[in-house]
Design brief:
The chain is an all-alpha fold. The chain is about 65% helix and about 0% strand.
Length: about 200
């Protein structure tokens, strides 16, 4: 992954792109740590599997931070502690909500993916660097698959989630469409191969 991203063109990075990378670095860590916490409470594989995927996401962003010499907001990170105060408040809220019941934990999962997709697509509007665009598009694809996973569990619970960030129409399109198989980072460079995250158990 590192070699592949480093092999893509080094382009001037805009202040907007820098800010988006900083935001998404911590936002993906938030997702990972909330899911890890929920897994300790309920021992449901979906939380463990998706937390591992989120770890890959945030490490991928770290590669870009290093590539462009951007200070890592997660340097010296301690679990559950974030530089971004909005994310700190969100972490506190989501872990508290998720601890109330298994259903609430699933709602938390769908909420995180709802926010991730919304933020990533907003970021993509400001991005023109080929490597940043590639990473954000792949993260967005992963988040759509995560959303489908939580949707399936919520449906089994008889619960209908109402999106809080993306539109209802877009949400319906996502959960009623097929799982996406990633055009992984290295596929972009080599032009061959596919990757698939397995987190929907």
């Amino acid at each position: 992954m590192t070699d592949c991203l480093m092999s893509l063109p080094y382009e001037d990075i805009s202040p907007e792109e820098e800010a988006h990378l900083i935001l998404m670095r911590e936002e993906e860590i938030l997702a990972q740590e909330v899911y890890e916490y929920l897994y300790t409470l309920y021992s449901i594989p979906v939380f463990n599997n998706i937390s591992k995927s989120e770890n890959v996401h945030t490490l991928t962003i770290k590669v870009l931070l290093d590539k462009y010499g951007i200070d890592d907001p997660a340097a010296g990170h301690q679990t559950g502690i974030f530089q971004n105060q909005e994310l700190q408040e969100l972490y506190n809220t989501l872990t508290a909500l998720g601890s109330q019941s298994f259903l609430d934990a699933l709602i938390v999962g769908e909420t995180i993916e709802d926010l991730d997709i919304y933020d990533l697509e907003a970021c993509l509007e400001d991005v023109d660097n080929i490597d940043v665009e590639l990473v954000f598009n792949n993260l967005c694809k992963g988040s759509r698959n995560h959303m489908r996973a939580f949707y399936g569990h919520l449906s089994n619970q008889g619960y209908t989630y109402a999106p809080q960030y993306i539109s209802q129409e877009y949400y319906d399109d996502i959960v009623n469409s097929s799982w996406e198989i990633g055009n992984g980072i290295c596929m972009y460079c080599a032009g061959i191969g596919t990757t698939e995250e397995t987190f929907h158990e």
